[in-house]
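hey so i finally got around to running the thing on that chain from the lab meeting. sorry it took forever, my laptop kept dying and i had to restart like 3 times. anyway pasting the input first so we r on the same page abt which one it is
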Amino acid sequence: MKYLDEYRDGAVVRALAQRIVQIVTRPWVLMEICGGQTHSILRYGLHDLLPKEIELVHGPGCPVCVTPAGILDRAVELALRPGFTLVTYGDMLRVPGSVMDLQSARARGADVRMVYSPLDALRIARANPDRTVVFLAVGFETTAPANAMAIYQAEREGLRNFALLASHVLVLPAIRALLTSPDCRVQGFIAPGHVCTVVGCADYEQLVRDYRVPIVVGGFEPVDLMQAILTLVTLLEAGHAGFANEYTRSVSARGNVEAQRVVAEVFTIADQTWRGMGEICGSGLCIRERYAHYDASRFFDAALTEPPAPAVCISAQIMQGLRKPTDCAAFGTACKPESPIGAPMVSTEGACSAYYRYRRSTAHVPTEVAQ
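ok and heres what got predicted. didnt touch it at all, straight out
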């Protein structure tokens, strides 16, 4: 709890937790969608402040974790082709594909570069006109506007040695898939505040009406998250499937209209494969036909295929709120951040990474590591 003791609003967080203790009368299973929220919950020990009736489970809200292995295989293949440069974010370099990761491809001589923005990829393309620069673009609605803008800018400049290998996913269809699963345990959701900053709240309110499940938009500070949990528990205890926005300083009803406009200009909604969850109808974004010359999928003749996940990895169940990372036999032993088997152990937003850093179980971790 040392991080919470050092947190400026720690007393407020504890007071909110006490209010939850006072009102809860039965068990509730709540899911935070975003991996950033998961890390904040575990870092500050928020779960330890809650009554035993409240169980927090972790959703598929880590973009690195849900990027299909088939996309990684394509990225590696492009990186190893002569005349190609593969550009992406640092988290993606060590995400395992079915054969190797991008870091291993770089060790074999591939031109793989880490950037902080898709605009950095444009800069690399301008500086290397003799090479084809491919940006591996992943993420939710949050990163889609910047990636769309990169294509829009490349078109304005007439830059033809630039392409996107896109694997964009949308949160709402994933929540619908979870709610329609016969194994679903979740009774209330903390919606991702950063996504709602872009898309607004209207579609989430419709989700509440369609499925009669309470949803509260939450931020990332401990006080934001505890307030969201308190609001969810209040709604559940009252038997009310309602919607609330507890991140009003960033989220509005309409969202960022200009960001939505540029995304709609460049991308269109498509079916998308999620690592660990399979194909979800209408859950992705693909590049529109008018910008097809920037679509890196044109470099492949065959359709994308998804290889099977390693048998020991239970990340699919973790991202659906069915298991916890510490339930995995490989957690902290065969699977560690430096030698990951599953993507959630790699990413800074992955649930397994968060548990390894903040909540390791000695049941699966060697003594010298646990200490």
